[in-house]
Design a protein that fits this description.
The protein is of the alpha+beta class. The chain has two domains: 109 residues, no CATH class; 349 residues, Alpha/Beta hydrolase fold, catalytic domain (Rossmann fold, 3-Layer(aba) Sandwich), CATH 3.40.50. 20% of the residues lie in helices and 24% in strands. It contains twelve helices and 20 strands. It is globular and about 70 Å long. The N terminus and C terminus are likely disordered.
Length: 487
């Protein structure tokens, strides 16, 4: 390429989604949606030693001219290149990673002479997030079970007071580094406002796309970086050792169930969209593609990986023991803590049948389990009503089994340095949390709408409802019919 030292050569991707450009100190990525034609392209670069710093360049392939694109603010990233209009669009990175967060859209001219002065905002969304009260965070150092140095992150509750011990939610996801930044699904914002401390421990990368290409027993590695981090949070005087909770989404759901099977430290867990039976997941069609005729659209395979690309030596019939050893369903009898299971029926990453299998097994064993299904939702909840609904159910579940007492405004009540026990008082229902101040703004309007008969804000959800004629033990109040006997 003439006139630029950016990279020795420009490589168009074999993978249509992205590729890397070779360079000694930086990696460069080309995104498909940023190159509608090959006369121009936006190149994204990041320094390997400081991956948080990204740079963007507009490359005119016909002339070789390179223009560095300056973001209007550091948190913005290039979302799209409109070559016909010579315009680049910037959006908040967090909005791409976590839909529903505060975000803004900017546009700018790609010409060198006008780019800097042409940047202008188009729209700002979800600005109410900026009014959410935030809390301080704490980085912790500890040693993992295999003797390696590790780091974790504790987000302290809003209004944290030194000397008090708080209920701790351990948010797990294999591969997370556990230091700084934002955790998934607004945990760093919402859980602390409800009085919880949140721990994100460092965990090894064992995502589903690695499982079928390894001979390691990754199931047994889950607790490696987690349990020592929990003990560190307790030793620091932050976490209440009698009120430890665990939650994870996707492969974090897998890790949550594994932790509940490998440890008795947790009072309750929440597993969302997890994969629990390797063998049955291996050949499952994607929910959104199973009615098509094209093989690729079926998304057959393990954790969304193309089944035709997997080596034949790592199949359930060639190494059934590997699949069995690493499936939480194999150890289902070891789950002792109550667990809330969540899944969307249109999940194309992990089939909802995975959670159905786990729920059925836990139900058969008489474990304390609840299963909430969200119709029309995919791998990550997108409906604001459903997100709100899940938060209310999450808090109700954790409050119940961690024995947490709250006042009329929703604040945790303390007795000495610990949260006060409910003392046998009735458990708050999920709907009760709607009126607490950490669910404002929005809650009051939703209540008013329902009083006027407007039900548009109600979430799309469904609970497992087993006929009471066949299982008399399930004769519960309507909102509890999705629970297993004995809960």
């Amino acid at each position: 390429m003439r006139g630029t030292p950016l990279a020795p050569r420009l490589v168009w991707p074999k993978n249509p989604m992205q590729t890397a450009l070779t360079s000694s100190d930086r990696s460069y990525v080309i995104r498909r949606e940023q190159r509608p034609a090959r006369s121009a392209v936006v190149v994204e670069s990041s320094n390997e030693s400081a991956s948080a710093h990204h740079h963007y360049y507009y490359v005119d392939i016909d002339t070789g001219q390179v223009t560095e694109l300056k973001p209007p603010s550091p948190e913005l990233v290039v979302a799209r290149l409109d070559q016909a209009l010579k315009t680049v669009y910037w959006v908040d990175k967090t909005a791409l990673d976590f839909p529903g967060t505060a975000s803004s859209l900017w546009l700018a001219d790609t010409s060198p002479a006008q780019h800097g002065d042409s940047r202008q905002p188009v729209v700002a969304l979800n600005r109410w997030h900026e009014n959410i009260q935030t809390s301080a965070g704490l980085e912790i150092d500890y040693t993992s079970l295999d003797g390696q140095a590790a780091r974790g992150w504790i987000q302290l509750p809003v209004g944290y007071q030194p000397g008090r011990r708080y209920p701790l939610i351990v948010y797990v996801y294999p591969g997370q580094q556990g230091v700084g930044g934002r955790s998934g699904f607004h945990y760093d914002e919402l859980a602390p406002t409800a009085g919880f401390a949140v721990l994100r421990p460092q965990m090894g990368f064992i995502s589903g796309r690695i499982y079928a290409m390894t001979t390691r027993d990754v199931y047994f590695e889950v607790s490696n970086g987690v349990l020592p981090a929990v003990e560190r949070a307790v030793a620091l005087g932050i976490a209440d050792p009698d009120r430890l909770l665990v939650e994870g989404h996707s492969m974090g759901g897998f890790a949550t169930i594994a932790l509940l099977q490998q440890s008795t430290r947790f009072k309750a867990g929440l597993a969302n969209a997890g994969e629990y039976d390797w063998s049955s997941s291996w050949g499952t069609f994607a929910a959104t593609g199973r009615y098509g005729d094209d093989i690729a659209s079926l998304n057959i395979g393990f954790a969304g990986e193309n089944i035709q690309q997997r080596p034949a030596t790592q199949t359930p019939w060639s190494d059934s023991s590997l699949y069995q050893r690493n499936s939480p369903i194999t150890y289902v009898e070891r789950v002792r803590a109550p667990v809330l299971l969540v899944h969307g029926d249109q999940d194309a990453n992990v089939s909802m049948t995975q959670t159905e299998e786990l729920f059925s097994a836990l139900l058969r064993l008489g474990k304390k389990v609840s299963f909430v299904r969200y119709w029309g939702e995919k791998h990550v909840l997108e409906s604001p009503a459903n997100i709100r609904d899940l938060w209310q159910r999450r808090l109700s579940w954790f409050d119940e089994f961690a024995d947490i007492a709250r006042d009329s405004a929703g604040h945790m009540l303390f007795e000495g340095d610990r949260v006060r026990s409910r003392g046998g008082a009735a458990v708050l229902r999920p709907a009760d949390y709607e009126h607490f101040e950490f669910f404002q703004p929005g809650g009051a309007k939703a209540d008013a709408d329902r009083e006027q008969g407007d039900t548009s804000s109600r979430p799309r959800r469904n609970f497992v409802r087993i006929p009471t004629d066949s299982l008399p033990l399930l004769r519960r109040k309507n909102h509890e019919r999705h629970r297993a006997p004995g809960t």
